[in-house]
TrEMBL record:
Name this protein carries in UniProt: Leucine-rich repeat-containing N-terminal plant-type domain-containing protein
Origin species: Brachypodium distachyon
Bilayer-spanning residue ranges: none
InterPro entries hit by this protein: Leu-rich_rpt (IPR001611), LRR_dom_sf (IPR032675), LRR_N_plant-typ (IPR013210)
Signal sequence residues: 1-27
Pfam families linked: LRR_1, LRRNT_2
Membrane topology: Single-pass membrane protein
GO cellular component annotations of the record: membrane
Domain Leucine-rich repeat-containing N-terminal plant-type intervals: 28-68
Keyword Transferase found: no
Length: 140
C-alpha cells in the first residue's frame, strides 16, 4: 500500500512538472515580482492596481496587463489612472514588453535605464506622458 502511494505521488510530481514547465512559472513569477515592485512604488488612489496580487502564479490575470500565449507580459496599460510615484528598475525584467502606457499620471523621477535593454519595447512613455520624468538614469 505504501509503495502504491509513493508511486502515485511520483506520478503526480512528474505530471505537474510536465504540465507546468519551470521556465514559464519562473518567468511569470519574475515578471509578477517586477510589476509588484512597480505597484509598491506608486500611489493608487483609484485602486486600479488592486488585482495585482503577488501570490498568484502569473500576472496575466491582473487588470491592465496583457500577455502573449506563452504567458509573458507584453503590455502594461495604466494610462489615465491618476497614479503617482516613480518607475522601478525591476521593469527591465519584462523582457517581452512591447507597450508601456502611463499617459496622464503624475510620475516623477528617472526612467530606469533597464527599460532601454528591452528590445521588444515599441511604445513607451512619449509626449505628455513624460511630464515630470527625467531622462534615463545613467548613474547606475
Amino acid at each position: 500500500m505504501a509503495l502504491a502511494a509513493a508511486a502515485a505521488a511520483a506520478a503526480l510530481f512528474v505530471a505537474a512538472a510536465v504540465l507546468s514547465p519551470a521556465s514559464v512559472a519562473s518567468a511569470s513569477n519574475s515578471e509578477g515580482d517586477a510589476l509588484y515592485a512597480l505597484r509598491s512604488a506608486l500611489a493608487d488612489p483609484r485602486g486600479v492596481l488592486q488585482s495585482w496580487d503577488p501570490t498568484l502564479v502569473s500576472p496575466c490575470t491582473w487588470f491592465h496587463i496583457t500577455c502573449n500565449r506563452d504567458n509573458r507580459v507584453t503590455r502594461v496599460d495604466l494610462g489615465n489612472s491618476n497614479l503617482s510615484g516613480h518607475l522601478v528598475p525591476e521593469l527591465g525584467h519584462l523582457e517581452h514588453l512591447q507597450y508601456l502606457r502611463l499617459k496622464d499620471n503624475h510620475l516623477t523621477g528617472l526612467i530606469p535605464r533597464e527599460l532601454k535593454n528591452i528590445s521588444s519595447l515599441k511604445v513607451m512613455l512619449e509626449g505628455p506622458e513624460l511630464q515630470g520624468l527625467a531622462a534615463y538614469d545613467t548613474n547606475c
